[in-house]
Amino acid sequence: MEYAAMSMRSADLPVLVAGAGPVGLTAALALRARGLPVTVLEAGPDGRTRPGSRAIFYHRQTLEHWEAMKPGLGRQVAQKGLVWSTKRTFWGERQVFERSYQPTPPAQLPHSVNLAQVDAERLLFEACVDADVNFVWNAEVTGVESTPQCVTVGTAAGETWHAQFLIAADGAGSGVRQALEIELEGSRSANSFIIVDVIEETERPQRPERLYYYRHPAVGERNVLLMPFAGGWRADLQLRTEDDPADFNQPEGVARWVARVLPEKYAERVSWISTYQFLQVIASTFTDSQHRVLLVGEAAHLFAPFGARGLNSGVPDAAAAAAAIAAAIRAGDRPGAADAVREFAAQRRSAALYNRDAAGVALTHMRAYSPLAKVKRRAAAAAAIAGQRAGQWLDSAPYGPRAAARGTKAVY
Prior knowledge:
By secondary structure, the chain is of the alpha/beta class. The chain has two domains: 15-81 and 111-187 and 281-358, 3-Layer(bba) Sandwich (FAD/NAD(P)-binding domain), CATH 3.50.50.60; 193-277, Alpha-Beta Plaits, CATH 3.30.70. Helices cover 33% and strands 25% of the residues. The chain has eleven helices and 20 strands. It has helices at residues 22-33, 60-69, 73-80, 117-130, 175-179, 246-249, 251-261, 311-331, 339-367, 371-385, 390-396, and strands at residues 15-18, 38-41, 57-59, 86-91, 94-100, 112-114, 134-136, 141-146, 151-155, 160-163, 165-168, 184-188, 193-199, 209-216, 222-229, 232-238, 270-276, 279-283, 293-295, 301-302. A seven-stranded mixed sheet has the order 5-4-14-15-16-13-17, sandwiched between helices. It has a five-stranded parallel sheet with strand order 7-2-1-11-19, covered by helices on one side. A three-stranded antiparallel sheet has the order 8-9-10. A hairpin with a 4-residue loop joins β8 (141-146) and β9. α2 (60-69) runs parallel beside α8 and α3 (73-80) runs antiparallel to α4 (117-130). It starts with 14 loop residues before the first strand and ends in a 16-residue tail after the last helix.
């Protein structure tokens, strides 16, 4: 395995991937599964430590993609992760909805699994090494030039790389996207969210339940999501627009509210704190004018996390990008060789628009700024407490209902 780069590579190099996060690693695996050599350029050093659990929730579709790219990988992630069996939703102190799931048959992948992103990345990286993916570290992309024949990539280390195609999986601050002057279009949430990870005493929480509270009485009637994952809990606090995040995201403030929504012992086990104003943005195009660069994951889109649409959309992006590149390489110099890349860009941007709209519906519902939204939520809570089915709507609405983009097929 070669880890160091020479100063120049031939344009015969089929594919470069920018970024060794989970989406970049997925793209590399997908390319290797199609028999294509691939080199990954990563801005960070080898063995870098990634803070926090970051993404923690993986849909079955994501596990299926990984399993198809590297047999056994999807199951490995599922075995390492936690499958919660029950979800409960509350209005204040009153429970308004509960659902428990039957255990998944051994022959099937689970409906979802919760695992810290750093652990999922480790498994993906090991699979890439086993698949002979070449990694180049300390290789931040600073320049990109695309022609009808190839793409040229410059890095902060002064190296120049040439390839037939480049997959940009270098995250929200994508150097590739910026070098190509591709704009992000969309909005930012007005209020902030505080996300905290706490360490569990055991690898598996004793009660693997997902808990969602509307108007939690212990934190001034702010909304709270509690999500277990292998080795810990995630607590997500929704602030009001008038709140000062500094009152909630500093160690003392975090310890204070965590002890109110989880057992008090967890206040001393905080391992990661992050503050977000969620972006709802999509790249104006998922490919360059020469159809040599393909944007995937957070280089292409950023969503509010409701429904876990970020990474679970980035993985299908990567799979589709690899398929498009393989088709384009097979087509060679024949007319229409770029059609596969154009189709990738159109289809994955359409999926991103759906996911942005669904996450946006959830964000609007959770914030409930309008009088109508507030009345609708209160009416649903009253009906749910009286035993009606409105509790199911209260449970599902924060995750982006499928009706968010009418007429659009739900595709992650």
